Amino acid sequence: MLLDLPKMEEIQIKNGSARIKFDEFNQRVKILSFKGDLEDLMNQLTVYESKCTIGKIFSIIPKEDIDVYKAQGFIIEAKIDQFLNGQPAYFLSKFLTSKRKTSMHLPEEEEVLIRSREYISEDYINPTYEQYTIRDVRKEDADELAKLYDEVFETYPSPLNNSTYIQFAMDHNVFFKVAVYENKIVSAASADTDPINLNAEITDCATSKPFTGHGLIGRLIFELEKDLKTRNYKVLYSTARAISTGMNIVFAKHDYVYGGRLVNHCHICDQLENMNIWCKVF
Description:
Number of strands: 13
Largest sheet: 7 strands, mixed
Helix content: 25-40%
Shape: globular
Distance between the termini: 34 Å
Oligomer: single chain
């Protein structure tokens, strides 16, 4: 896994400025905000394309900004209702290379999506466990939690095998739930919250291999949802590996709605992978 965090930068453009997140590990740039000339920003971002392997620029925007982005070659990949404090948001991307825009696994991923949607009508049964304890993560759990992520993922979009990063995340609106078996953390999931726009990403789901198939991630998501409801969050979302049948079924079972697919978006298990967007409005 990568131990360096994505770099935040502010760029001066015609009639304004822009904040971007330069993510070399996932080979992409995210436009966090901009005011001014988007065409000028695009011209400046070509510097990243020439210096390294950046192949994708994306942004999450309100509906009224779509035409401005599409004029610069962006396409809509996903939509989440009520993402921006009750208003919908759109995930738009611009692919800088034909290779980055091309996915070789779409037929298999469509099969995963079809199979996942078959579970939408099923009522989720909250499992009860006598042998597992479900609880919040504490700062002193960071080392053990980092070892779990290192065990489960060969590579991951964020440096969760770094205990310092986990503690940093906990100090910046991310909270974790874990399942504990015989005093050992065996499964984990987190909510990366946006207290301004009242949305939260369900992410960082991992289970130690000997404990897979026991519904632990589903239970952790259920517990995260209960906490977020009490905090008056409006919408939850998650990005699941499009090729992963299990995780897509988990979100379908929890009444999440498919919102789109982000092509070649995250570097996981030593390759760029497509990510399905699932969302749930409270």
